[in-house]
Amino acid sequence: MSMKTCLLTGAGRRESIGRAVARDLAADGWDLALATWDPYDDSMSWGARPGDLSELVAEVEGLGRRARVYQADLSDAATPARLLAQVNADLGPVTGLVLSHSQSVDSSILDTSVEAFDRHFAVNTRAAWLSIKALAEQLPPLDELPDGARVVALTSDHTVHNLPYGASKGALDRIVIAAARELAHLGISSNAVNPGPVDTGWMDDDTRRTLTALQPTGRLGTPEDVSRTVRFLMSPEGRWVTGQLITTDGGISV
Question: What pTM does this model have?
Fold first, then answer.
């Protein structure tokens, strides 16, 4: 039985950070459970693109690893436990969790609805907590985990005119950092990664020009820039790093 099975959320689109993470983890020997939710993608400008996921599965399998796709409505509080149980049955115990999904619909203090606020917290915050909890509850004993287990969550510090997204990501950070201390006895290391502005298909030309001008490196970040950090944290070499909020944004926040 493989002890390197990772549940990766938000890997649906070809341009996503999750996609780059999936390729890196597969190259490092991880089997992958890929969670997505087509109705959310359908509601966004890019739309659902199931062909992207099929392509990713073929890439992972081409690297000699197993891959399964799961439709997961993370706004439903019952989904995380049910999803972890299904992945455990299909691929073996989950020892890695990369939370790369998000609910992100722009709105500000004066025009955010209660419904939108609650949905962002359900998907970005509550689902993260329940996924981490479910991971911990299905882990094998520590003496059967030579490299321990990993949690990495993608976060954000964007809040202005993006209130429910930013607030829910801030709460996510606290949960992930708490997990590093509370779940250390299970062999879990837990970190959050803030990638800053990365062009994953959501930027228009004006946004790209504006952000590039602010970027000390003279270029925008790519999904691969972020995935390299996640790859390290998920590796045996990254085991000692835990309880951290790591900013990997090319210096734009400095």
Answer: 0.94
